[in-house]
Specification:
By secondary structure, this protein is mainly alpha-helical. The chain is built from two helices and no strands. It folds into two domains: about 70 residues; about 25 residues. The chain is about 60% helix and about 0% strand.
Length: about 110
Amino acid sequence: MNGLLRVLGWVVMVGGAVLYLAVSVVTMNFLSSIPLLISAAILAVILFGLSEALELLWDQQERLERLENKLNALGREEPEQNGPAVCKKCGTQLPPGGTFCPTCHHHNV
């Protein structure tokens, strides 16, 4: 879309200049067709401006998506386990600070 607007801007600019020259040569009055040239230039500038605005908008959208992904990655970190530690093998509650299960003697690391 961005490239299309730029190409369209150039087409309007060149087309307006060619139309200005054609009308001026046919009518043999170069001053009366100046508004045609000015309006083509204004329309081309508007199209170029829209192209730049869309490019800035897309860049901002990409930045927001990257920021959102980073924030989601931060939110996915596992919270600390607040409850008592349990054995991974049998599920028995481990003594505070202990890594060996008193029931099955499994070493929980």
